[in-house]
Amino acid sequence: MIVLLIQNDLKSVTPGLRGVSDSVGYIVYTWRMDTHTATAAAPFTAPLRREWVLLLSGITTVLFLLFGTGWMAHLAQPLWFTLILAWLLGVIVASAFAVVRHAESLAVLFGEPLGTLILTLSAITIEVMMIAAVMLTGDGKPALARDTMFAVLMIRVVPQ
Question: pTM for this structure?
Fold first, then answer.
């Protein structure tokens, strides 16, 4: 919050004016920066603040492309493994929530039939990318995709 103190010249003309201090002789103006004012004040940084998850995902990708081989060599140490696991899990969860937030805003924009389709396709795309990431790492096992899809179907179809 920004507080401006301006010397009071109106005190003698208008006694009892709101914001006028009788003892000191200053007018106190307060101004609070809200999101609309912040967006108007900094048009370049506003999209970066809204889409910080995209920036975090891009930085994580670049760092793992540059230093990933060296970082993965030290995964036998429990503290390092916990740090890398927490970092990647946090970025993946934040990215998934960002995708769902965007899909939900598009669903509201397009309405009922297309909105449901957009939400469904975004969830399925996230699942397919996770399955592809599991399949592309490690040994090539052709039954892995089939077993993963059966597990997903069992979780969704079988009632609890």
Answer: 0.59
